[in-house]
């Protein structure tokens, strides 16, 4: 204990012995804040809209970074549930960053290692996300009907 803290402790003890109550100080409010990395204003959606000549090595780098980011959050037992080009950002060093975790959900312990992974995945993602980027399995109730039809609402083309 440093000298100042020791002196304050002795002073408190002396005041208690004399029967003098110190006024209680109000507890300062507690704030929660999230600090994120500053990224460029351009998202993957913006890049796709403006870039006509997309080089395979650039596309490969972007896809690799997206998939490694998803692998990381899945290892932490989270599901993003709103993955779309507008939620993929570029840092100032041009690395890819996932954003907008407002719909993210943690996987329940009983879902981990489930033998019926398809049912579990559908229960965690069904009806959640941006409609134009949802897979047919998320939009429709029966997965088999959708797989037979093999229709997607919309797709982004990287090449």
Automatic annotation (TrEMBL):
Cellular component aspect of the GO annotation: cytoplasm; nucleus
Domain called Protein kinase: residue spans: 1-159
Protein name: Protein kinase domain-containing protein
Species this protein is from: Dreissena polymorpha
Keyword tags: ATP-binding, Kinase, Nucleotide-binding, Transferase
Family named by the database record: Belongs to the protein kinase superfamily. Ser/Thr protein kinase family. GCN2 subfamily.
SMART domains: S_TKc (SM00220)
Pfam families named in the record: Pkinase
Residue stretches in coiled coil: none
PANTHER family, A to Z: EUKARYOTIC TRANSLATION INITIATION FACTOR 2-ALPHA KINASE (PTHR11042:SF91), EUKARYOTIC TRANSLATION INITIATION FACTOR 2-ALPHA KINASE EIF2-ALPHA KINASE -RELATED (PTHR11042)
């Amino acid at each position: 204990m440093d000298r100042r803290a020791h002196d304050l402790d002795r002073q408190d003890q002396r005041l208690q012995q004399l029967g003098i109550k110190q006024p209680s100080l109000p507890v300062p409010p507690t704030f929660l804040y999230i600090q994120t990395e500053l990224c460029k204003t351009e998202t993957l959606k913006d890049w796709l809209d403006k870039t006509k000549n997309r080089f395979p090595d650039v596309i490969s780098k972007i896809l690799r970074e997206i998939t490694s980011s998803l692998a990381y959050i899945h290892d932490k037992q989270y599901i993003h549930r709103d993955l779309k080009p507008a939620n993929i950002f570029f840092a100032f060093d041009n690395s890819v960053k996932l954003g907008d975790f407002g719909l993210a959900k943690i996987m329940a312990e009983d879902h981990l290692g489930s033998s019926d992974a398809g049912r579990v995945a559908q229960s965690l993602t069904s009806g959640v996300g941006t409609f134009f980027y949802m897979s047919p399995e998320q939009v429709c109730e029966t997965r088999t009907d959708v797989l037979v039809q093999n229709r997607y609402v919309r797709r982004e083309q990287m090449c």
